[in-house]
Amino acid sequence: MSGRAAAISGGSGERGSGERRSPEQASGEDAPDLPRSDGDLPSWDDLAEWWWRTFTNGADIEYEQQILPLAEAHLAGCRRVLDIGTGEGQLARRLAGAGKPGLVVGIDPFEGQLRNAVRQGGGAVYVRAAGERLPFRRASFDGIVCCLVIEHAADVDAVLAEAARLLAPAGRFLLVVNHPVVQGPGSGFVDDRVLGEQYWRIGPYLTESVSVEEVDPGVPILFRHRPLSRYVNPLCGMGLVLTALEEPEPPIDFLTDSLDLDLERAMPRLCVMRFERPAQAQEWRRDG
User: Fold this and answer.
1) Would residue 248 count as lying in a domain?
2) Which of 2, 132, 153, 267 has most Cβ atoms within 10 angstroms of its Cβ?
3) pLDDT digits over 28-51, tens only?
4) 110 within a domain of the structure (yes/no)
């Protein structure tokens, strides 16, 4: 898997008060029940400076040439946008500067990430909260994005349910994941020097699994692999409709060290899914 990750909690993230607020009323105050890390792995607070140096402000080709433009295009025209797992906020900043939406809110459970987001400015509002339990009222946003985040969430159903709860009629939810077929555990480019073959191996796609990948020297990150049905079916069951699916060709500048350019260009790194809540559909309600 690619290691293009952003912060989200690994647990239930229950809030103490149970109060739901409008995005304007929510604050960035610390919540003592927010989880910190997965076992002995570094937390996203520990990795905040590494993430900022490695992926922000043009440092990462894939973000600059593909992820940010895709998100901007799919959420064009949305007036109230939520970025779940905003990390240091580069996606929220991009959306806040595109088409001048009325409000862009980035949420993240990790204080170090949010400090970097606030330091960058850019017009978005940031709130410290976990994706599994968000402090906003139902149908607060007409645009929601969760980009390369949900693979790090233990309770995927809670994150998806919150996205569905907060999405207004006619709203769009953009879910971006590392492509679980060609970028999943056991999948990848193979240069077989014995047989003289180069090919792309596909790992056990249908098997849900947890793995730790060293995405940079000394930077281990936990990934949770799931087939696409684990995202699509719950969202459709909550009244959303899948209206677009993109599997973009990797940016050519990302493949400068490729051993087989034609093969690697044919293997998508990302899977981009856009869901919409029909304007006239009966509102789905989550208990609690």
Assistant:
1) yes
2) 132
3) 433 334 344 456 799 999 999 999
4) yes
